[in-house]
């Protein structure tokens, strides 16, 4: 018989905890996933050192089950959630956990406009576009926030060069960071480096709710716009986001390639169903200018996104070149848009276009 959740839970129940009870009776297990001998779950709901101390015995108990190939137990960084916990108030809130009841989408305090940046396919440059557009808008005089909601692969701390853990003086409010003139918060800043995030459903809703409403977005002044860097695809995060807050618009990033465009169409369809207006499409990695000979090549095709935008009757916001300097700048934590040169200019034009539309 294939190993299932019940067998895993009963193995976990067999591990007695020092304070009495077990992880199941004390409701410390979240997001349990059991598939083909691979078991993963999150331990949450008690102090982090306490959870870390229980981890080896829990792993051993699960490993002893027949047919186990691997066991991953994730303990989120930081102390448990909940008011009145002094340890928490000293160290700051943990991210994740179940969402608090909320009646419909709510406005994020201190934020005028919220724009989500999405893509159908991964790796098309959505995070690169988000960070550079944020910097370009800030350079154009706007107050800009950037929320990295790419829960499974947060890259903004690296791209924006901000890796400090955000402070939380009262254990509830999270103070965002500031980098290159942009107010920044990323789920990645609240997790230990290399820690895998395997949240689903309720845990994810809770984390997003915290990112939107516990972060003091107007810490450096009220924001004209909050850009949200979404994970690729059409999953839980996009859905949760539209349930928690009202998106004023969504920008779709795609490469000109047919396969990326197909996925982009799915993302557009999803935003339409979620009643988030599509601001327009951006073509990234559009042309490649050889730094040696100046020859212009179209590695992923060219013009496909503009044509698709026309077909879908959506605005085409602009084309951004494939440029080694863009990647190097992102990897070094100084977005290309913060400097001078053609790539920075492309982003400045993009930012001006959005401002001219009266969106920001
Ligand atoms: N215009 C560009 N020129 C050169 N490199 C680029 C460009 N856009 C993105 N890249 C590089 O491509 C890689 C993927 O980009 P990025 O992480 O922004 O994509 P993504 O769509 O957000 O990916 P994911 O789906 O993994 O979050 C990065 O190394 C980035 O530096």
From TrEMBL:
This protein's source sits in the domain of life called Bacteria
User: Pfam family of this protein, just one?
Assistant: FeS_assembly_P
Q: What is this protein called?
A: Iron-sulfur cluster carrier protein
Q: Which PANTHER family match?
A: IRON-SULFUR PROTEIN NUBPL (PTHR42961:SF2)
Family of the protein in this entry:
Belongs to the Mrp/NBP35 ATP-binding proteins family.
Species annotation:
Thioclava arctica
**Keyword entries, A-Z:** ATP-binding, Hydrolase, Iron, Iron-sulfur, Metal-binding, Nucleotide-binding
Is-annotated flag, keyword Nucleotide-binding?
A: yes
What does the annotation say about its assembly with partners? Homodimer.
Which GO molecular function annotation, any one, does this entry have?
ATP binding
């Amino acid at each position: 018989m294939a190993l299932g959740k019940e067998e895993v839970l009963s193995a976990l129940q067999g591990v007695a905890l020092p304070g009495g009870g077990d992880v199941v009776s004390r409701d410390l297990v979240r997001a349990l996933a059991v598939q083909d001998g691979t078991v993963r779950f999150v331990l949450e709901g008690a102090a982090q050192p306490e959870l870390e101390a229980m981890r080896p015995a829990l792993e051993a108990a699960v490993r002893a089950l027949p047919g186990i190939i691997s066991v991953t137990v994730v303990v989120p960084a930081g102390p448990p959630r909940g008011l009145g916990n002094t340890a928490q108030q000293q160290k700051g809130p943990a991210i994740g956990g179940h969402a608090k009841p909320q009646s419909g989408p709510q406005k994020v305090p201190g934020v005028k406009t919220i724009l989500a940046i999405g893509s159908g396919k991964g790796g098309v440059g959505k995070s690169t576009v988000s960070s550079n557009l944020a910097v370009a808008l800030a350079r154009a005089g706007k107050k800009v926030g950037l929320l990295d909601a790419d829960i499974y692969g947060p890259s903004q701390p690296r791209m924006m060069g901000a890796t400090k853990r955000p402070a939380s003086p009262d254990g509830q409010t999270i103070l965002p960071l500031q980098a290159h003139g942009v107010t920044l918060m990323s789920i990645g800043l609240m997790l230990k480096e290399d820690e895998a995030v395997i949240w689903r459903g309720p845990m994810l809703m809770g984390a997003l709710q915290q990112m939107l409403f516990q972060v003091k977005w107007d810490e450096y002044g009220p924001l004209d716009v909050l850009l949200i860097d979404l994970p690729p695809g059409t999953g839980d995060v996009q859905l949760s986001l539209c349930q928690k807050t009202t998106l004023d618009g969504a920008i779709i990033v795609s490469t000109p390639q047919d396969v990326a465009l197909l996925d982009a169409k799915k993302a557009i369809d999803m935003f339409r169903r979620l009643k988030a207006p599509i601001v327009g499409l951006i073509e990234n990695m559009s042309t490649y200018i050889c730094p040696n000979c100046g020859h212009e090549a179209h590695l992923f095709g060219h013009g496909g996104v503009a044509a698709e935008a026309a077909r879908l009757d959506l605005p085409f916001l602009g084309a951004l070149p494939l440029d080694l300097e863009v990647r190097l700048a992102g990897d070094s934590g100084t977005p290309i848009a913060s400097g001078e040169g053609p790539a920075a200019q492309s982003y400045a034009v993009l930012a001006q276009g959005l401002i001219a539309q009266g969106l920001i």
